[in-house]
Amino acid sequence: MTIQAKIKKNTYFDSVSLMSLSTRANLIEDVKQAMIGMGTDMNKEVIRNVGMGSKEIEAAGTGDLMITIETDNPDAVDTIFEEIDLLFTTKVKKPQKGATVYKSINQASQEIEESNVAIISVNGSFAAREAQEALDKDLHVMLFSDNVSIEEELALKKSAHEKGLLMMGPDCGTAIINNIGLCFANKVRKGTIGIVAASGTGAQELSVRIHEFGYGISQLIGTGGRDLSEAIGGIMMLDGLAALEEDEETKVIMLISKPPAKSVEIKVLEAVKNSKKPVVVYFLGGDEEAVTKAGGHYAKRSKEAAIKAVILAGAKEEELDTHPLNIPLVEEVRAKLSDEQKYIRGLFCGGTLCDEAMYAAMEKLDNVYSNIQTNPEFKLVDNNKSQEHTFIDFGSDEFTSGKPHPMIDPSTRIDRFLKEAADPEVAVIAMDFVLGYGSHEDPVGVMLPAIKEAKEQAEKDGRHLEILGYVLGTELDVQDIKEQTQKLMDAGVTISSSSQNTGLLAREFVLKGDSK
Amino acid sequence: MKQVNALSIDKQFKEKMRSKTVFTVHSVFERTINILIENDLFTLACDQIDSAPATLVIDIPDFNECQIKANTQGFLSLTTVEITGYLAINLTTASIWECQLIDFSLHHHHLGKNISLAMQEITSKGNAKWLRKENSTLTAFDKEMTRMLTERTTNLIESFQKNTNDTIEETIQCAKKLIGLGQGLTPSGDDFLVGLLLAFSTSNTTFFNQEKWREQIVKEAKSHTNIISYSAIKYAASGQTRETIALFIETLDAKENDEQVKLALANVMKIGSSSGTEMAWGILNGLTLLLKQEEQNDNTSKN
What is the number of domains present in chain B? Predict the structure, then answer.
């Protein structure tokens, strides 16, 4: 065992960089352990306590940076320090070749006169100010930031509405404008179906299904998840609907939202009634009779909505491969589960994917809990502890505070997955793997070691652990969907072909003697 | 040379502007630059950083473009801060900011509930490894650091619980063992003490000799941690902190509102890598100590 230390005199790095450097240094080949920290007496004591003390460390001052490593390969010491030095110099991400960095919306809009959309992703405390500045410059806005107050959202949307601009967001994760995906979006072909969505992954799911059925998207306008709340009154969904009404390329319109406020649903359906184009309405928990009465095309589930839209756009139903539910698979899985294995645990990165699966479960099961349940009776008491059938949206604010969204870093659900997998009462764990712009480059790869570990442990314990995976994406996405799916299958994961089927399969797996 | 406007200036910083003074750049980060004026540290911060003691917030998104290096000389006047050859900041556009921590009423029933909620949030979602309930990926170093931080913060709290001015030496010794302990630029132990000092500043408690304790901690910090962390401790000892933290403290004292407490805490936890979480932990532990003391006082007076 070799221990070596280096001191950088009077060197200051911010804490985020220091922690990141330390983490990355621990991943360098041949490093058994590495520590980078300030040279205080107390830190020296910790280093001594773990047997890594040295003369160099003892000589460090409080303003010095200590780097100490432990390795079993003494020949690698120089290389290790060279690599650590490299980490210091590559800490700041430089703009990519060809990219121009502007310091403010003002500067960017002045220098790119033809610009007409601003995408804003800053800390929520400053997001409204930046969005208002963009609107003042007559730019449409896509506001990715969350933690914007409802009052600020209302003011921004009113301001945009008065100016005839789109105010997509806050907390708007998905849009496709003129075939360009913004933030989280999948690469899909251009077509004649326009979507207005108050739901990010729900919109991704619709666009992907439409693409799969051979059709394409004219525009996908996001509104932000709170748009159909009582307070906001659906301002952006109504404006989006009006914009698609005017858009010549759009022949069919789709509206998607998590459960809307009743008064807003009525307002939106009134607009649907006046629409000259066919409108498919997919509101989770929506009112079929009200939609039909308004002349809209009601859809209870996402795939059903996509099928209706493509048929309205000209597809023949009999020619569509709709992937009906695989009943023999349901029977096969049920036979493998013991009587003790009763519960579904849904661990989702996508909020609407979680919602859709949860709604499917709630149709036949009474005890369905979640961090996003609207019924307080079934809201999880502790989000870190599952109760009976549990569906977790890891993209929800309570899990993302100070951390990247799980679609960017899916590792945030690994610990929870392993915990659920060890629970003998768990029958099936359902998970989504979202591909596309903005998403992790290998979301399946991140989870794979944990999936393998869980499967092996379940086998040792003499039980079958059913893992149901859904890869949301198209063959055009930057990640290879075939490879992602194959990796899951090789690890013994059952693949679902859509968000709709994910919820239905999970539910049917745990039901005994009630297959449909 | 880049010219920018100042957005806000801390009152103490403004007071330094009275005469033409030379300064040296101490350290440069992406979004802050520290300068040394007569051995005191002051901060120039970009527009997304909140107002803070000894800080000048300026209308610039980051300092990457400026290419300023440590040890560069600069000067300040009544209307300008200039880092020679790199950056000139117009001070006439700045509004004056001053940290004002509220005085707590320790009798509010909801304070205890808000504290308990915030503590749960920290142990389940906070960024400090040593405070997390579940931690699967700790190195031997992390484990030892966790052990020492846990043991020493617990010892400090217990020493306070013994109460009375007689035990003040013990509390000082316990606090000394935290100064400089932790990996970040502002070590975890320092951040915890900053929180504790701020909590004590919210109440005119007499359950121990606060003044002596504060003085000793500041004195010890000067030689046992780096100057950036020392400055934070020094300002906290006089009840001064950044806007986000002051807002969090205020939210705890406001009426019971889980969402607001969570939001204010989430904003604090975004500070640094784990510093925000650790400062919040110090604040919550400090307030808990004050509450317990208040309860004891009430019971004594009833008896």
Answer: 2
